[in-house]
Amino acid sequence: MSGPLFVGNLHPHVTEQVLLSIFLPFGPVCFVKVCRDRATNLSRGFGFVTFAHRHNAENALDTLIFSELLGKPMRMMWAQHDSTLRKSGIGNIIIKGLARDIDDLALYDTFSCFGEVLSSRVVCDSNGQPKGYGFVHYATPEGAELAIKKLDGMLLNDHLVSICHYKPYEERQANQNANSKCCKKKDNTDDDITVFSRAAINNKIKNVQRFFFLCLCVCVCVTIYNYSLTESF
User: Fold this and answer.
1) S-S: 10 plus which of 14, 161, 215, 226, CB 3.0-4.6 Å?
2) Transmembrane segments in this chain: where (predicted)?
């Protein structure tokens, strides 16, 4: 028995029978499931298909990936049941600055030459319009590194794209908190410097005031002395 195939981006009307009819021509199928919400029993938009033989699953994956089913292109990959691997971000890259005409299939075709691609996805808004960035998940970190090395800062459909490793939410939050602490510490240092500078300026002003006061006293004393000499003659 082969490992299960993950089939995503399914139309809400796709059932197990529909999936079976699509995948059965590629070989004997052992298991088909469309995942549903427990409360509403509505489709969650993805499912799993398991073939009796791996070569049948590989053939189906190569042939059907991003093919349309009820008007929606299917996203397919080998199912990853290890949640820690999926969430770790290993082999996962984010591509920013994508042209509007880049879809999941174009992303897959572009990046698959650097290594085995487990999944590719262009992020869209609620109206189905691309938001200008997407994700590609490689089977190995080496594939991700090579893609970044070759395509980061290059033109893709006349758009300059930036590519970097995807960082999980927890790691991004930790980095933001660390940056906030650094900025706060810097602000406090700047305040200390400002206070010190003001104190130094005040001291200088006081010193200047003392100097002028002494000069004034000397001038008065000299004037009085000269006047007394004049009166004596």
Assistant:
1) 14
2) 18-35, 211-228
Instruction: CATH number of the domain at 141, please.
Output: 3.30.70.330
Q: Are residues 70 and 15 in the same domain?
A: yes
Predicted confidence (pLDDT) per residue in 106-132, tens digit: 999 999 999 988 888 999 998 889 999
pTM metric for this prediction: 0.60
162 and 123 in one domain?
yes
CA 90, CA 25: separation in Å to the nearest integer? 34
Statement to judge: residues 6 and 61 lie in one domain: yes
Q: Which tokens sit at 81? A: 């049941």
130: in domain: yes
d(CA 81, CA 86): 8
Are 67 and 25 spatial neighbours (Cβ–Cβ below 8 Å)? no
Parent domain of 144: 81-166
| Residue 213 belongs to a domain | no
Distance CA 148, CA 143 (A): 9
b/e burial code for range 170-196 (CB count within 10 A of at least 16 → b) = eeeeeeeeeeeeeeeeeeeeeeeeeee
56-72 pLDDT, tens digit per residue, is 999 999 999 999 999 99
Cβ neighbours of residue 148 closer than 8 Å, sequence gap 6 or more: 93, 163, 164, 165
